User: Which sequence fits this backbone?
């Protein structure tokens, strides 16, 4: 029951709306802290101090610790450029997410293309980051080395599932089964496909011919009586 409900939420048009909602939350979670750290320098200083204290508390391998320190020093020197890149990427993905929601509401599959491209880049980047952190987690703690790959795999799998549903709906032109059936039957209900004598089946032609002859005989009988 729970599995079927989850699959129904992640698939179809409802899956597109859920994908858009999750993407919006994710973009805002990245965009707002980065903007705050760019505007107020104490925000970045607080984050840097927390990372330094965390490195001091965890005793890693000497070579790995020195490499991480050098990497953090480089990031600290160019943090504004890195934050500007993150803000630009988050804003671009936020715009593509809004187009995704708009295309889902208006049945415009061309509006899904920006989100499919940007999210594919994010998935590849997440795979690279998760692989790197999985390797580094072996130097931190054994428990983290076991738990982190599992959580990272679940997040990646769920995100790939949402991307696959969006790509599937794009290939189907955003038309669900019920809507496709209704679109096919609606012209018939409205009478747009009224039959023409040349297109009638033999049985229908014979029935129509008999009906005409009956009406003609009835008209002749009425004239004779009058």
Assistant:
């Amino acid at each position: 029951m729970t599995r079927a409900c989850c699959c129904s939420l992640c698939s179809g048009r409802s899956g597109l709306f859920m994908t858009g909602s999750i993407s919006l939350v994710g973009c805002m979670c990245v965009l707002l802290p980065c903007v705050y750290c760019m505007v107020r320098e104490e925000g970045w200083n607080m984050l840097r101090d927390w990372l330094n204290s965390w490195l001091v508390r965890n005793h890693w391998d000497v070579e790995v610790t020195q490499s991480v320190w050098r990497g953090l020093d480089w990031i600290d020197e160019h943090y504004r450029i890195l934050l500007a890149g993150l803000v630009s990427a988050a804003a671009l993905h936020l715009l593509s997410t809004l187009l995704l929601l708009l295309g889902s509401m208006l049945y415009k599959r061309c509006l899904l293309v920006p989100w499919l491209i940007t999210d594919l880049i994010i998935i590849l980047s997440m795979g690279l980051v998760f692989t790197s952190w999985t390797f580094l987690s072996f130097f931190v703690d054994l428990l983290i080395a076991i738990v982190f790959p599992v959580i990272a795999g679940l997040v990646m799998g769920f995100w790939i599932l949402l991307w696959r549903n969006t790509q599937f709906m794009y290939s189907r032109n955003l038309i669900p089964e019920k809507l496709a059936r209704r679109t096919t039957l609606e012209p018939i209900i409205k009478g747009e496909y009224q039959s023409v004598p040349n297109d009638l089946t033999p049985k229908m032609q014979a029935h129509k011919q008999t009906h005409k002859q009956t009406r003609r005989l009835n008209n002749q009988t009425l004239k004779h009586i009058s």
